[in-house]
Amino acid sequence: MWTRSHSIVTKEVTKEQMWKLFADVNNWSAWDPGVEAASIKGKFEKGNHFNFQPKGGPKLRIGIVEATENRSFTDCTRFPLAKMYGEHTFEETPEGLRLTTTMKVEGLLGFVWRRVVAQKIVDDLPADMLHQIKTAKSL
């Protein structure tokens, strides 16, 4: 299994603001320039899924495998012979709110999907997380 994480600590947003940002899947494309389209029917909760299309990429169905309001969620994208997990946590610390995103890829063809998809996501995490904070501040 391949795993990479990025964390940032901030006092600019609350865990409630970050949760609100992510749970509103239908508006991801309004604030994330890398998202062509995203939609969910029903609640942002374990067992549900959402449709997602990155700019220039294929339409995907992503499952929500864990969701704890204002604390964390994990999504799972299934590829041929591999799975990619995105774990997102919001942890209060004395220094501020620690936001962590961990990407994991597993499976027989995991090495392919790491190169094609996951590595770019990881490379973009520092800038993307700063953008998420900036957007969540207004919620």
Tally of alpha and pi helices: 3
Major β-sheet, in short? 7 strands, antiparallel
Low-confidence stretches: none
The gyration radius over C-alpha positions equals 14 Å
Total DSSP E strands: 7
Structural class comes to alpha+beta
Using the coordinates shown, work out and report the CATH topology: Alpha-D-Glucose-1,6-Bisphosphate, Chain A, domain 4
Order of helices and strands: EHHEEEEEEH
Q: Give the % helix.
A: 25-40%
Q: Give the CA-CA distance, first to last residue.
A: 36 Å
Our count of domains comes out at 1
Question: What report would you give on this structure?
Answer:
With 139 residues, this protein is of the alpha+beta class. It has a single domain, classed as Alpha-D-Glucose-1,6-Bisphosphate, Chain A, domain 4 (2-Layer Sandwich). 29% of the residues lie in helices and 44% in strands. The chain is built from three helices and seven strands; from the N terminus they run βααββββββα. A seven-stranded antiparallel β-sheet has the order 1-7-6-5-4-3-2. A hairpin with a 2-residue loop joins strand 5 and strand 6 (82-93). Helix 1 (15-23) crosses helix 3.
Topology, element by element:
Layout: E1 2-10, H1 15-23, H2 28-31, E2 35-40, E3 49-54, E4 60-68, E5 72-79, E6 82-93, E7 96-106, H3 110-136
Antiparallel strand pairs: 1-7, 2-3, 3-4, 4-5, 5-6, 6-7
In short:
This protein is an alpha+beta fold and 139 residues long. It is built from three helices and seven strands; from the N terminus they run βααββββββα. Strands 1-7-6-5-4-3-2 form a seven-stranded antiparallel β-sheet.
